[in-house]
Amino acid sequence: MNIQEKMKVSITEAVDRAYRAAVEAADLPSAEGEFNVKEMVRLEVPKDKQHGDFACNVAMVLAKPLRLAPRKIAEAITKHLDSGADIEKVEVAGAGFINFYLSPNWLYETMNVIEKMGQDYGRIDVGKGKKVMVEFVSANPTGPMHMGNARGGALGDCLASVLSYAGYEVTREFYVNDAGNQIEKFGNSLNARYIQELKGEEAAAFPEDGYHGEDIREHAKQFIALYGDKYLTCDEEERKRALVDYALEKNIEALRSDLEKYRIVYDVWFRESTLHDAGAVMETVELLKKNGYTYEEDGAIWLNFEKMGLEKNEVLVRKNGIPTYFAADIAYHINKLKTREYDWAINVWGTDHHGHVARMKNALAAVGVDPKRLDVVLIQLVRLMSDGEVVRMSKRTGKAITLSDLLEDISVDAARFFFNMRSAGSHLDFDLKLAAEQSNENPVYYVQYAHARICSILRLLKEEGIEVKPYQEIVPSLLKEEAELELLKKLSDLPNEIKAAAEMLEPAKITRYVMELASCFHAFYGACRVKVEDAALMNARLKLIDSTRIVLCGVLNMLKITAPEKM
Fold first, then answer.
1. 297 φ, ψ to 5°?
2. Do 162 and 423 touch, CB atoms closer than 8 A?
3. DSSP letter (8 states) at residue 476
4. CB 477 within 8 A of CB 105
5. Given strand 382-386, what is the order of strands in its sheet?
6. Nearest to 471 by CA among 127, 121, 24
7. Which residue has the higher pLDDT, 3 or 62?
8. What are residue 295's DSSP bridge partners?
9. Dihedral (C-alpha) 142, 421, 509, 129: value to the nearest 10 degrees?
10. pLDDT at 33 (0 to 100)
11. What are phi and psi of 396, to 5 degrees?
């Protein structure tokens, strides 16, 4: 249990004892029926520091069963409160909030825990080893990754890290859409370019719905460099198959390479084609049919969403006998949750998939899978900005900016940090100029500089023979200044921030946390000298900043952002 949770348990138990003492003394009436006061206590950290370290609204919750005004309940509880060594003062505020003002003693232990856990500080066990798969990016392999993929990559990867820190067994997965309609279009596009490169532009009409990117033409040229006109006279389907087999692997390898530059390494690259090859897609259709959720119309097999209370039914198998992408997607989710037995599946999707969420959950319910085992994080759009202007085109290529283009202009650190600064459901204006700046205006620089500054202080003092002492050899109670205590409080927050980020599926909370921690350190540095004549105070402050260094480094590593020792 972390330091804050221990303190909350201690306060909760004190409130419970005080309530029972108040009832026994007839200062509070006995409630009708039985209830557990401990379960009613909710402790929050007030936004305004003047309202104490923790605020409790238990009096409001008890008002109905006790049929008494909340303030009177709060006053009765505080009258009987056995505060203990860590609670310096208790006040009733407003309509009946109970505010607790604590001595700093409980905070000092944070440094001891950080010393013992090192960069594992913050790890908790709310997940209890539950198997969770986070599937993210899953970009169409027929082309390069765009800005939505870049944001999804940062959020998905950081979410996976947060869940791992929270005690889950996490698998990162990329779903390769190497089957279906988009691959058919890919093959048609490659086929047309292959013929055009060999026989001229007029020799083959380019499909209207084809992929017009220069990458298609480059694939055709490279294929010709290897095989010449060998496939020109063969069956068209054979030619398309050979072109797709060649170009698709090139594209997948490029995706893998770009993502690894972005510090994303997947545990599994799962191919849609394996579902078709194993017969899993048609098995899914048969299962839906058996459970009474399909019907046939115009030669096609439809999924009856109207029967599930949703609008617009969905085609599962076209009249030509080919299953749709949606049928394969249901089979894929069955594979995740039934075949591979993940306890929990999390998909990171673009906001354009909003309407798909309820449909997938209902489809899972129709095949007997609990839809609560699937969660979807929807990502809003990204707008690239520079000097207040929207940037749409790459300076290098003159085309839409890809992840690869972005990483040529700014660091991976800046990209991952900026994309993870706001929750997935918020629109993001990505300031390219700010992301490239080396100043405290740049949030990632500001955080990294805090770490580098601490390393510099420790390095210079070490040259003078002054080193950080073990917790048992310092006098932590000498840390009394407001800036010192605020920094300690922020250090103590990390396990709860991990818990909240995991529960809310919001890794941006951790980016905000590390910015706030850096801010607390910079405030401390401006208010308190580390190298002072009082050796005991100096040792306590050294321990505090070293604890901050460890946590800054640990959180940056969690986000896969470098923690430089010099800047």
1. -155, 135
2. no
3. G
4. yes
5. 389-390, 382-386, 428-431
6. 121
7. 62
8. 302
9. 30
10. 66
11. -75, -45
